[in-house]
Amino acid sequence: MNPRSPSLLYPILFDRHPEAILTTDLEAFIRYANPAAVQAFAHPPPQSLLGQRIHTLFAQEDLPDLYQHIQHAITFGEAQRFELPLWTKGHAPIPLRIMLVPQADSADSAVQALTFYITISKQPAHLRQLAEEPAAYDFNRMEHLSTVSQLAASISHEVRNPLSVTRGFLQLLNTPGLTSEKKKDYIKISLEELDRAASIITDYLSFAKPIIDDTANFSLYDELAYIAKMMVPYSTIQDIRFYLLNQAEGILIYGSSKKFRQALINLIKNGIESMPSGGELRLECTGAVNGIAHIVIADSGIGMDEEMLKRVGKPFFTTKEKGTGLGMMVAYSLILGMNGEIEVNSKAGVGTSFNIYMPIIEEFK
Questions:
Q1: Which residues belong to CATH 3.30.450.20 in the chain?
Q2: Is 248 left (phi over 0), alpha (psi -120 to 50) or beta?
Q3: pTM more than 0.70
Q4: Phi-psi region of 59 (alpha: psi -120 to 50; beta: other; left: phi over 0)
Q5: Where are the alpha helices (DSSP H) in 108-217?
Q6: Which range is most confident: 40-44, 242-246, 361-365?
């Protein structure tokens, strides 16, 4: 990803987002700003923010704090949470809650861009939610945004494949003496590849939407299929072989499908990132026994020793050089919040498996 050219998905992802989102290059020049950010920071609001340095949006006395967080994000690849005031003429300062998420093409590559995800206190609906659950709300949203940003590179790569195939077959239509039957075949293949690209983008955009607390019965089979579809591109770009065994037909679970999806994607991402030299990851469900569905996420990564196992799921524990531990902690919190359980088995140098147990509502045939 060229830091001077933010993902083409950004306008689709963030233009309608209610909170301010800015993306900068490593020199702090703004390369993308959604309408909410323009409304909050541009003077007058219709003016573009693109090309400005982000420090021009804040007061001089607040810049050392801003620089410190930017430098930490770039150096260590770690997401940052902090607060700064927004000063406006003739008004009291407005508190801003800022989540700064570094972006890279893969877990072990250098940071290439920064995304600022900003909650402005004059949005009362968000304030009420933040006041009720500040820690859980911030952790969950930060990890979700971080995952969205990290998956963007692999999704873009995956979309390029069918587009390249389509381009190739459209060029072949100019071949002299091409039969009518061949033309039909080439057009058919091109349309199928375009449909595949559209499907990939649609799935990603669905995941990228902000998580809301919507509880209902959902199909475990459909969720596992969706998660696998989302994570195969990310696995492929990291040289990981992804295997799905999905025997969850007819199993319903009550809870938030979005939160369940986020929890499993966090665990799968963690497994993928534990295999820097490639490997295998399995997502399996062999059904339900005594009203409990059993889901397994297993990798062939670096594994953990007994001391590390005791700390899994605890705040800020991570085995990654550039990790924060937020993803694992959020996954545990979300599963426990749906009355589920997680057990982890691991052996250093062999790999790790997460066993997730979820109470089911019913099985239908």
A1: 8-127
A2: alpha
A3: no
A4: beta
A5: 124-132, 134-172, 180-208
A6: 242-246
Give, as one character, the DSSP assignment of residue 171. H
Q: Which tens digit of pLDDT belongs to each residue from 176-221?
A: 888 999 899 889 888 888 887 776 676 566 556 555 557 899 999 9
Distance CA 222, CA 311 (A): 32
CATH of 216-359, one of 3.40.50.2300, 3.40.30.10, 3.30.565.10, 3.40.50.10680: 3.30.565.10
pLDDT digits 0-9 by tens, 36-67? 898 888 776 556 788 999 999 999 999 999 99
In the prediction, which pLDDT does 155 show? 67
Torsion angle of the four alpha carbons 330, 333, 339, 343, in this order, in degrees rounded to the nearest 10 = 80
Q: Which CATH class, in words, describes the domain spanning 8-127?
A: alpha beta
**What residues does CATH 3.30.565.10 cover in the chain?**
216-359
- Measured between alpha carbons, how far is 181 from 229 in angstroms, rounded to an integer? 33
Contact (CB, 8 A) for 264 and 227: yes
Domain spanning 150-208: CATH 3.90.420.10: no
